[in-house]
Amino acid sequence: MSQEQLSKPYDKDCKADGDHHVASETKNEIVGFVANNQTEPIGVQVVKQESDYKSSGSQSEQQQQRGDITIGEALEATALTAGHRPVDYSDAAAIQAAEVRATGRTNIVPGGVAAAAQSAATRNARLPRDEDKTKLGDILSDASAKLPSDKAVTRRDAEGVIGAELRNDPNLCTRPGGVAASVAAAARLNQTNSLNNKSN
């Protein structure tokens, strides 16, 4: 998958929830992401990168020094950018792909983030009203703590998550600000940080 495919622009034929999304000039400040005060679009929102790194104890010392964004943190960013949307099967598949890549296991962890997402997607498919459905924010708000292990997002991780979301979406497209978009943005930031650290 090429870099152009990772940064595919928002297609108006592929709308999420039928909403009209307009790029906002406001910036969400998310503590824990480091990229020397760079901004990175996640879907249609812009995330301002903080210069101070606040991390959980699950990352290696080298990742903390470089400021790599982990898969769990990328999932938590999804909770902030798209937390109001009900969980569907494409979200559950993308979350499962992210969890499998973070843990290194080939199956999902019982009681983990992917299991909760799959359960929510199945339940949401049966409910007629959006108010009663489980939202992405409910599932992903504490993703870093729920994952048994975590790792920095790589381009391959992003490609796997994007593929899972695409395969399970009826329109064969990813959602702006969704799981795949957040993981892809984190992978791009990690790649930029890695290149900046190597040149210094």
UniProtKB/TrEMBL annotation:
The keyword DNA-binding does not apply. Keywords: Repeat. It comes from Rehmannia glutinosa. Residues 9-23 have a biased composition (Basic and acidic residues). This is SMP domain-containing protein. Pfam families: SMP. InterPro entries: LEA_SMP, LEA_SMP_dom. PANTHER family: LATE EMBRYOGENESIS ABUNDANT PROTEIN 47 (PTHR31174:SF34), SEED MATURATION FAMILY PROTEIN (PTHR31174). Residues 1-23, 45-68 are annotated as: Disordered. The keyword DNA damage does not apply. Residues 55-65 have a biased composition (Low complexity). Belongs to the LEA type SMP family. Residues 69-126, 134-191 form the SMP domain.
